[in-house]
Amino acid sequence: QVQLVESGGGLVPAGGSLRLSCAASGRTFSSYAMAWFRQAPGEDREFVAGISWSDGNTYYTDSVKGRFTISRDNAKNTVYLQMDSLKPEDTAVYYCAAKEGIPRVLQGTYNYWGQGTQVTVSS
Is residue 29's pLDDT more than 90? Predict the structure, then answer.
């Protein structure tokens, strides 16, 4: 059974940094894409960043380019989201997700989801 477990959320002032982790287990992820989504109160869940497990290609939504970095550690089966220069509008619950193939922005294409971790950026 596939499990995705996020950690690393918290409260941080504007301009600060956080690193989210997503520990994956239950299968071999070499052909999978991993992604981070986020959902703010009253908003739809949106794609933030994605990475192909096999070749490490990365994808970002425009609002986080240059501030967020997605990476993976193959040995630990863990995906990270380094978030720098955080803004109040980055406040949301952040979810890790997995699918076969390459990352896509549509949440419906992902088969597996973590439970989410809260990120709050104060102004």
Answer: no
